[in-house]
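Thread: quick sanity check before group meeting

JM: Hey all, I'm pulling together slides for Thursday and realized we never actually wrote out the predicted structure for the chain we discussed last week. Dropping the sequence here so it's in one place. If anyone has concerns about the input, flag it before I start.
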Amino acid sequence: MSKRMDTGNAACALAVKAANVDFIAAYPITPQTTISEKLADYAAAGELSGVYLPVESEHSVMSAVAAASAAGSRTFTATSSQGLLYMHEILHFAAGGRLPVVMVNVNRAVCAPWCLYADHQDSVSQRDTGWLQFHCASHQEIYDTVFLAYKVAEKVRIPAMINYDGFLLSHSMLPFDTLDQETINRFLPPYRPDWKLHPQWGGTFGNVAAAAEYSAYRNTLAEDTLKAADVIEEEARAYKDLTGRWHGGMIDVQGPQDSDVFLMSMGSMSAEMSLVAEALQAQGIKAANLKVRVYRPFPGAALRQALPQNAKLLVFDRNLAYGHEGGALLMEARSVFYDSGKAVKIAGASVGIGGVDLPAAMLTEKALALLEGLK
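JM (edit): ok, ran it. Output follows.
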């Protein structure tokens, strides 16, 4: 184990190198580019265990890693914003094919107009592609989540997307601790798929299916995505037992478990929300920070368990759910608690769109205004 001071993208690339990935396909896009550059440097220096393939577009990136995954490889790629949108067609193919691809999406606003800075519209817009989605709030969480994502994806055979905020985490310099290779290998042994394409074995992949078979297959994917929540909790705790590091399972509640007010967000805003909770506590409001670590599957059961009767849930989205009040987290939180038997009051706001700064003082004012509205 050693301490590093580097960018979030560097933390990501270090973890990917240590994960013994067999195949990487890459195409640059701001603010993801330095991940691809770091991995290219490792490949040129002979420090990668697998193949690094530069291609001509994000559509080709996802096509390449999906094909390599179907052939039995542990695969990786990274993208942002419009690049993620360009992959959209093949994201469905990877999920429907039950291919445990791991991809990092460095969150960036989508056009139009063009914007280089962070919000979550890119990843939230891919909600129903069938991918697991993790969100990270720190460099340490980025590094650790790479190993967790591979472990979970390969166990449930569903692809996983790791998201973190562009520039705020991707390019900022913060300390994080790495792990020795022996510890990583204990948690994440080499990938040995139960099935793979092979020219000597025959078989087909992703072929045409009749309605009944197609429906059964897709419903199984939906059911297994929900079941992945238990696997994520189990493997996050196994990682904690092995390394001592804990970022939460599906969610992470930081503060009194019997709080009256819970501040719900995901990504780098979750780190700032710990200061907001402290500011509210200083005003006599019993508040806790509630970080959403996993957006897909949505942590409904964890939320219902975490919030006591008569709690107030303040939801802060960094996205807009067009055609619906507020953002996607607010919409899903209301769905979770509807007819749940818990009298939880919910209010929310969409903030930080297009990279608008989110200082703790501003978020505290917004929280107090939401609380006033709940009266």
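AS: nice. The chain has two domains: 2-243, 251-374. The radius of gyration is 20 Å.
JM: adding both to the slides.
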